[in-house]
Amino acid sequence: MTSLENANPLVFQRSKERAILPEEEDDNVIDKIDSREVFDMIRGINDPEHPLTLEELNVLEESKVTVNDDDNSVHIFFTPTIPHCSMATLIGLAIRVKLLRVLPARFKVDVELTPGSHTSDVAINKQLADKERVAAALENAHLLNVVNQCLGGRAK
Amino acid sequence: MAATMASHISDYVLKQDDSKAADIARDLYKRDVTLVQVVESLGQFLTSPVVEQRRRGTQLMASILQKLPSDFLVEKEVGHVTAFLVSKLSDHHSIQPLALHGLAAATGYSAFSDGDESRRVCSEIFKEVQNQSLSQADRRATYTIFLNLLTSHLPDLQALGDTFVCGYVQQMDGEKDPRNLILAFRCSTIICQHFSLGPMEEDMFEVNSCYFPIDFVPPPNDPHGITRGDLSETLCGVMSATPAFAQYCYPLLMEKLTSDVTSAKLDSLKTLCACLPIYGTRHLQEYLGSLTTQVMREVRAGSPEDVVEASLHALTAIAAQVSQVPQQLGEFMAETGANLVRQVESENLAARMSSTRILCTMASASPLVCHAVASRLVPVVCSVCQKLSQLEQHTAFFTEVSSLLQHIADAQSSKTALDWSLLQDFRGKLQEVCDRLLASKDSQLQVLGMRGLCALSAWGAVFTADEISCTAEKMMTRALTADTDDLREEGVKALSKVARQQAQLCDGIISHLSQVLQNNLALYDACESRKMFDNSAALLAAVAVDDVTGVKVCQALLRLLQAFQTGYEECMVPVSNSLASVLVRGHLPPQFLVSTALSGVLGFLWSGCRSWSADKQHVHVTVLSTLVRGLRCLVLLLDSQASQSVVGMICSVVIKGNNSGGDHADASPLKATSPWQLSRLVQLLLAVIPRLDVKKDDVWEQLVSQLPDLALQTEDTHTHQQACRCLAALVNRMPAGEWLDSTVRGLCTTLTPTLTKRPHADLDLQHRTLNLLTWLVKAVVVRGHKLSSELTGQLTGFLSDQRLGPKAAEGFCMILAPFPEVLCAEVNANITPTFQQRFLIQNLAHLLDGFQNAQSEVKENYLLAVAGMLTNVPQQVLVAELPKLMPVLVSSLKGSNSSLHVQALATLTAGIRNMPELMTYYLSDILPDCLMLATQAANMRVRILAVQCVGAMIHLPSKNLQPHKTQVVNKLKAAIDDRKRLVRKEAAQARNVWCLL
What we know:
The complex is a heterodimer.
Chain A: H1 35-42, E1 65-68, E2 73-78, H2 88-102, E3 108-113, H3 121-129, H4 131-139, H5 141-151
Parallel strand pairs in A: 2-3
Antiparallel strand pairs in A: 1-2
Helix pairs in contact in A: 2-3, 2-5
Chain B: H1 2-14, H2 20-29, H3 35-46, H4 51-67, H5 75-88, H6 96-107, H7 116-128, H8 136-152, H9 154-158, H10 162-172, H11 178-194, H12 201-209, H13 228-239, H14 246-257, H15 262-279, H16 284-300, H17 305-322, H18 326-345, H19 349-362, H20 367-387, H21 395-413, H22 427-439, H23 443-456, H24 465-480, H25 485-501, H26 506-521, H27 527-543, H28 547-562, H29 572-584, H30 590-606, H31 617-637, H32 640-656, H33 676-679, H34 684-688, H35 698-713, H36 717-733, H37 738-756, H38 763-783, H39 788-797, H40 805-816, H41 835-853, H42 859-870, H43 875-892, H44 898-914, H45 916-936, H46 940-952, H47 958-961, H48 965-975, H49 981-996
Family (chain A): Belongs to the MIP18 family.
Domain MIP18 family-like (chain A): 37-112
Pfam families (chain A): FeS_assembly_P (PF01883)
């Protein structure tokens, strides 16, 4: 087994399940998609290295998810646990793929590294923003398998 | 008779007719023939020179023994049969297994004699039987013999001593089948506990421990139902059976702890926990160091949470054992403890966290350990806490600290005398930490602060009485302004603990809280006051911990009830909640209960509520239901004398009205003309029916005759529902016989004309009548009365009625649905076990026929009735009936009735979990409908259930799902953009799992 990049990460508390409000149970009210909802979609993604979720590692925070339902835009900043993390691209890709699957297609999604959180943030942001590179990455069976493991809940 | 038997026997032996064994056993049981006669007739075969005949003869003997009840034969008979079977053990090799089966049955007889008998059986088995060469069922017989003898005739076997242990070890050696191992482990446990193992110690351990850790996965559809958990639990029992195993067990456990397999680690840790108290200090010292290091490594290594939990338990068990010898504890703490404490101080957050966790959990081991941990850890914790700035990031740390404070409190209140003066210096600092937590913005930290303060308030050996009272006041003040449920609950827990430990503070707390209630009553509409009022009502109820406080709290709450006037409706909800919880606790003295509490509550409901405004009816329902729930639990709790006076008082109010005068002196809740505030009081009956004397007297007569009228004539829906329930509860408790039959028939005769009247009667009246009829059916169905099928038939008849059909169909769901306050076991209802199953089986065929023959516009009613029943039957029954119902369920998805969709989808989802094969078969039928409902149904509940159903399908075999993947993923695109968030949430989950397929 190769050694882990960040062998002993700091673990954060998971936030509670979102409380269900009375208006959410009323069929006549339209619920807009908000930042908490998008955060809920991605917070359970597994870290590629640890049996922990991105939320527990504080890679994702609700405050760094911006959603505008009317303008169909979603913007997410994520923060790798260490500034030279080689998994950053993979994590970004996993977030993108998850949203591709569970967020309505009308949204334009931007996934970026939190400024200053990574040594090569510009390059990685460019890769993540390039639709064709993302699509090409998903053609790669091995890579897709790794991403699916991140999205598929805890390993059995 | 004897001739028939002889022919039975020869048929069995010569013609190989196995069914004859049952005939002979039946004759024996009826005492038509005696065992002696059977043996005499069998004799020629048993002594025959032909092996096959001897074999069949022995087999017949064995199977007769297996079929008879275990107390049937007398000692002498069992003795003879046993002696015979023992002799057969040395016969031909094909006869031996049958003799074993016979002996397994014979040793289970209660008349199997003490003394030499069991020793002879065992010695013969050890001499003649080579267990490893037998088949699984035959080996099982051997273990059954041992287990029977060990459980019922242990002293006889103990006389055999080493011979028995040695013989058993040889028999058990090499066993492979889990079914047998479960028995073998049980035998081993008894042997280890009750025999001196002597030289066989190591062999006995080896022959059992070679299965450790259990690695067994039951095959799919395993009919035997043995799980890995069962095996590992019984094996754990063997390993922890005797302290003699200590020297072998510790090294084994340490080796298995290093395994990569989580289950092996867990098993090792659990076994360690079980073994330590039995082994005591034996050999512990040798392995203590390495064992502790290894278990602690598990806590630190980021193992899964269950392994960490188990490791912490193990460490606690180790500490508890070590603390038995004070000197050993001293050394242990000086070495391991000091090391851990050093890490708590360190800057490495992970190390700090795990060490704190280990130490805090260890502190729960025993007061001595707690004292030792506290003396080292508290100073360090204080200094660490002072340095921390962003408290929210250290929730886990503070959780451990607050649990440590609680352990110290427990240790101080234990009987062990310890010197706690060393904590004196840290009083202020600890309080300061808790205060900071309470003052933080994070709700979790607030809860921890409250918990910490609560623990500190129990440190009787450290804090003075004044300081404790100060702490209690601080907690109360903070809990009063609590914003979150968590903090309020924690405050309630803390205050009730304080009330129990510091009785002298109760008066002050109660009077303060009542003052807060009074002050905020008038300002209830303001948000802040409402919070104070609700919190103080909840806290007040928590303080009622004994007779004295109970009375005082009750009085304070009753004063609020008396002060009720229009405009204060909402305030009564928290008050009634608190009052109900005080009543339920059963602390109130009977005299006070009847004369003050009950009359106060009834007075409030009778006259106080008269001015309740009509637009707050729903609040009245909540208040009344809460009070009724409290009274019901109280009535069930009281002894018979006290309960009778409560029951009498409530009954007289409902039947005769309140005699205290007032405007409505002649009004009664049982009259439909009474105002709704009065007629709803009929619900009070539900509180007393469970303890109402079942006899034909005025009370019963009056209730049974007036309740139907009230139910039919009242305009108030709530009154109607409650009257129906009361009547059903009464009918259900009536003694079987003439009275019951005539009552039920009489009611039916009055109800049917309204329902069948042409031209139609008033629809509301018809619905009320139908509902009453349904409750009546429920009452008789639940008790399994003979009239139930007749009444159900009537109800089924209305399914074909266009006006009443949908209501009648809902009735089928209601009859089987559980209600917590009526017709359930908790309220002493008369319940036939499995009534749901019977009802389903009796009506299913009929309803399906009806569905086939019905006209198209009423077809859905039948489906609704079937689906309604299915949602309320136990899982096993559903599984048995589902195959015939699948076509119906599939067609119910195609209709437009949303309540039908809800029930059909719920049933299908349950079916997917329990019967994957069946559902796979219907997959292509249900999937398109589910997808259509998921995206297009108007009702959001239907959409949610449909999406859940699609998501649950992922558990079906993936080769069957693959062809549908693209379709599902595409169709769910619309569902993830649903207008409702709850639908989107489920759809996102479902689409994600289908994408991962």
